[in-house]
Amino acid sequence: MDKKNLDYGVIGNCQSAALISKEGSVEWLCLPNFSSSSIFGSLLDDKNGGHFSIKMSGDYTIQQSYEYKTPILRTQFTSKDDKDSFMITDFMPRYLHPARGYHQPPEIIRIVTPLKGNPVVNIEFKPALNYAKHPTTIIEEDNFLKMFSTNGKYDSAYLYSNLSKDISVLNDNHQLTDELFFIVSYNQKLLTPNLEKAYLEYYRTKTYWLDWVERREWPLRYLDQVIRSAITIKLLTYQKTGAIIAAVTTSLPETIGEERNWDYRFCWIRDSSMIISVLTRLGDNGSAERFLSYVLKLIPNKDEMIQIMYGIHGEKNLTETELPWLDGYCGSKPVRIGNAAYEQKQNDIYGVLLDVILKNFYYFQMNIDQGEHLWTVVRNVARIVENHWQEPDMGIWEFRSQKQNFVFSKVLCWVAMDRASKIAKLLQQPKYEKQWRDCAKTIRNDIEINGWNEELQAYTQAYENSAMDAANLLMCDYEFVSPDNPRFISTVKRIKDDLCIDGLMYRYKNNDDFGSPKSSFTICTFWLIKALYKIGDKKEAISLFNNILMYSNHLNLLSEDMDFKTKRLLGNFPQGYSHLALIDVAWEISEDELSEEGRFVHTLETLNLEGI
Predict the structure, then answer these.
(1) pLDDT tier for residue 397 given thresholds of 50, 70 and 90
(2) Taking the chain, what is the end-to-end CA distance rounded to the nearest angstrom?
(3) What CATH fold (topology level) applies to the domain 223-607?
(4) Closest CA to 545 of 532, 563, 564
(5) Where does the pLDDT of residue 523 fall: very low under 50, low under 70, confident under 90, or very high at 90 and above?
(6) 3-state class (DSSP) for residue 499
(7) CA-CA distance, 237 to 248, in Å (whole number)?
(8) For residues 361 and 423, is the Cβ–Cβ distance under 8 A?
(9) What is the per-residue pLDDT across 85-100, written as a single tens digit (0 to 9) for each?
């Protein structure tokens, strides 16, 4: 496939996820969970990575869309003469069983339905286990195909279908007269699947997602985009532990042909905390509580540093390695698994963490044991910040060899002590409240003296330089400054002048460990839009917002980065960071425009919209 853009749909079930191309090919699937090795990985190597494609023979047109309010993907093929057509329905089962809890098996289900005429379908089933390091063997059993590795680490998976179990027959053309189903499962089935059972899984999964959307609260503006973003973020949550991954993929490049290729199938404390804030606002308190439980299990002993990121099961060692046998997305090497950033020092994570804990005290009930546990965590984190806030770190953008006194890191240290003092007040601990409030004042004074550049009339990236940094657009969101603060207003305008090109934002322009950045970082554009809106430049903000929404792919999905000129999606995909920011801006605009009417939060039921 000519990968001119990330024209993929994502399906998932909070256990794992798969990417389906615009042409109906499964090109990324890791089982049994997000961080497992790939079964299909042609996303990272067209020739050898493995795929599962179903397409029409001859000339055809394609339409692809989600079933509304679900992550169930439909790809419809129609012949050029409009005589023949069929549809693929792709999903991963997820629903709540009344007795056994969540049903979310590590598998994908594909249902192929003839719609018109006598369509001929071409099927290519080419699994490549273990990131395609060695050939995958396929054998025929009585009611399934088993695929497994014969070299290196052992792994296996299974294909069930009502089509022939002969692999040579399967990989061929088939005239479609009746519906077909395919189940790619990590586990061998105890009960033999059939089409009826596949449809039962479909209807139960559809009902689950319709109910999940119905129970959320939504802004009135940009409803379609917000619902799609919320479902996408939900798909990045790992039900078993409460972890939230940054993206489904690894090693999709920030710039084609370069080496800024990272594995994002891990849980960053900062990113996940921001996502939880959005999910809580939408009313998904269950995800928030599970994430907090995940974090609390990871908190180390008193006065030990907290890592910036962990594996989805709480793994602390995320050793980064390269897979040299894979060509990489559009030839962008190296392909990496693991992420060396887990060893970095980033002082900003403490502020985000305590901000989430404060909200937890506000919004959720808890018993005395839970309260005491959280209080111990708060004191531990506050102690770390008190002792280390003056030290340089790697910053939010994870510079690998450049420790500096980043202004945003200092601001988040202020956030940590501010939230800690508020928690202490809430828990009637006046001694700690004063101590931490005083520390917050000290940090604020330090930022105002060393982080403000009088000549530029802006807060800079770091005490040591005069570069602009998009992260400082969040100062208002974290209540370090008010939106009418002259310093914040001039900072927003300076950042826009320096980092915004044709409506898209750099994170920063100064050189890092890999040279100068060349692509736009999507979340930073949303940060600029929200900051402009807050300081009163609302017309410009809405114009920029409408523009960036047009740059999403055909399914309203966003990646981490964009090309400034072509607007091509780049970086790992779909990116939770980007989608949470989209929701955040939509809320900001809706809340402001409807505030005079009083209530601006609505469920879909209260909207009474036709067709929903």
Answers:
(1) confident
(2) 35
(3) Glycosyltransferase (1.50.10)
(4) 532
(5) very high
(6) helix
(7) 10
(8) yes
(9) 999 999 999 999 888 8
DSSP states of 543-566:
HHHHHHHHTS-TTS---SEE-TTT
DSSP at 511: -
The more confident residue out of 298 and 339 is: 339
Residues written for the chain: 612
pLDDT at 303: 60
Cβ-proximal residues to 215 (8 Å cutoff; 6+ apart), any chain:
283, 603
**DSSP letter string over 85-141?**
EEEEEEE---EEETTTEEE--SEEEEEEEEEES--EEEEEEE--HHHHSSPEEEEE-
* Residue 380 structure tokens: 């531990």
Give the C-alpha separation, 417 to 436, whole Å: 5
CA dihedral 267, 268, 270, 276 (to 10 degrees): -10
Residue that is written with structure tokens 């059993």 in the block: 141
C-beta of residue 71 within 8 angstroms of C-beta of residue 556: no
| Calculated CA dihedral for residues 303, 309, 313, 317, nearest 10 degrees | -80
Residue 486 near residue 449 (C-beta atoms within 8 A): no
**Per-residue pLDDT for 598 more than 60?**
no
Omega of the bond prior to 483 within 30 degrees of 0, cis? no
- Residues 6+ away with beta carbon under 8 Å from 1: 21, 23, 25, 27, 42, 46
Average pLDDT estimate for 16-23: 97
- pTM value surpassing 0.90: yes
Q: Where are the domains of the chain?
A: 8-214, 223-607
DSSP helix/strand/coil, 28: strand
> What is the pLDDT averaged over residues 517-528?
95
3-state secondary structure of 43: coil
Structure tokens, 52:
């599962």
Q: Is the peptide bond preceding residue 574 cis, with omega within 30 degrees of 0?
A: yes
Residues 6+ apart with CB under 8 A from 284: 212, 216, 234
Q: pLDDT at residue 608 above 50? A: no
CA angle 468, 474, 478 (to 5 degrees): 140
- The confidence score (pLDDT) of residue 596 equals 46
Specify the pLDDT at position 513: 67
DSSP secondary structure of 224-288: HHHHHHHHHHHHTB-TTT--B-SBS-B---SSTTSS---B--SEEHHHHHHHHHHHHHHT-HHHH
Three-class SS of residue 310? strand
4/229: higher pLDDT:
229
